[in-house]
Amino acid sequence: MHIHSVLSPCGDIEMSPSAIVARAREKGLDIIGLTDHNSTLNAEVTRRLGEKVGLHVLMGAEVTTKEEVHCLGFMPDAERLAEFQKFLDSKVIFFENDVDKFGYQLVVDEEENVLDMVDHLLINALDLPMEDLQKKVYELGGIFIPAHVDRSTFSISSQLGFVPDHLKFHALEISKYCKRDNYKFFENCPWFSDFNYIQSSDAHYVEDIGAIHSVLEMPEFSFENFRNALHQGEPIIL
After folding, report:
1. How far apart are CA 44 and CA 81, in angstroms?
2. What's the sign of the alpha-carbon dihedral 122, 112, 29, 178?
3. Angle at alpha carbon of residue 86, lines to 84 and 90, rounded to 5°
4. CA distance 17 to 223
5. Less Cβ crowding at N or C end of the chain, within 10 Å?
6. Are the beta carbons of 206 and 179 closer than 8 angstroms?
7. Alpha-carbon dihedral angle through residues 61, 62, 63, 69, given to the nearest 10 degrees
8. Strand pairing class (197-199; 214-215)
9. Regarding beta strands 114-117 and 106-108, do their DSSP bridges make them parallel or antiparallel, or are they unpaired?
10. Are 63 and 38 in contact (CB under 8 A)?
């Protein structure tokens, strides 16, 4: 549920939507999430490619909030995805991307043709408090998941040190390095233990896709069923 394409400056140049879909199917995944930094512009093409081969792709972004907390937001359809993109664009603090320092930020099509290159650096924080982001995602009927909460940077634990009581989310995410049964994060921060979690690869390279995954039970795939499954007991961490 946490994969970066060539649109993210930190994403490898080989992380085209077609390569992502092919690798996900090779790894036997049924559902993935496309989550570029502060942008959804490669999400719809990835969804279309996935649909052709029976892979369900949730369309979203990894948003950097004003607190420098990374959060995953997913939209149920293309119309609301476009509205979410407009919302994110309205919160951008413009800083020109230096390709040599940060990498390319490419919008591509199904055949890997470059359609556009985003000029402003996408990994910067937006002028957007986390609570306002959460409210917008819920307003659009989306899924809101604070990302890699066990990490020492860009997470709720690193930036805040706690989970705000008023913050609503469908689950929390832990990184691929975290194990709930033996990892010091939950020993050092036991107040993070009583939540539902997913675990994701946060893949920036093709070979990292599927390095870790979660298992959720649902009668059949739909956005609503996926959202509901996040609340039905703790997802199984493998």
Report:
1. 9
2. negative
3. 115
4. 20
5. C
6. no
7. 160
8. unpaired
9. antiparallel
10. yes
Please give the sequence-ordered ranges of beta strands (E in DSSP) within the chain, or none if there are none.
31-37, 56-64, 70-75, 106-108, 114-117, 143-146, 172-174, 197-199, 214-215, 236-237
205-212 mean pLDDT: 96
What's the CA gap between 43 and 120, in Å, rounded? 19
Structure tokens at 39: 């942008």
For position 185, what pLDDT does the model report?
Answer: 87
**Calpha distance 2→140 (Å, rounded):** 20
Q: Answer for the pair 199, 211: CB distance below 8 angstroms, yes or no.
A: no
User: What are the residue ranges of helices labelled H in the chain?
Assistant: 17-26, 43-52, 78-89, 99-102, 130-139, 156-159, 184-188, 223-229
Indicate the SS3 state at residue 3: strand
**Rounded to 5 degrees, what angle do the CA atoms 132, 139, 34 make?**
85
Instruction: Supply the pLDDT for residue 193.
Output: 85
The whole model's pTM is what? 0.94
